[in-house]
Amino acid sequence: MKQISDTPELPKSKTHIVVEIIEYIRNAVLSKTIIKKSTGNITVSSFDAGEELDEKTSPFDSYIQIIDGAAEITISDKVYKLNLGEGIIIPAHSSHHFNANEQFKMISTVIKSGYEE
Asked: Domains of the chain (ranges plus CATH)?
């Protein structure tokens, strides 16, 4: 599996079609930064069919929304199937991983503030 990521944000004050921000690449997971700040970030990713990301844990809540295709997401050993337009919150400190039984694109929003309380 090839994982490709870039760092520049999208241009501000310019319209875009969210599903067209990123393409599918054969045998790869591709990520593109929409916004990256110290308080959180928004990323769009594409997964080719058969790809997956290793299990990981984040210290912050993450909101995942499927913008093309369908995804399988495992959160704390429970499997969720998300279809086009559906979303889920991955709780902070929960182990999770993604599996692409088919191609899919998603938006991931991570909010890093509000954990000080």
From this structure: 2-111 (2.60.120.10)
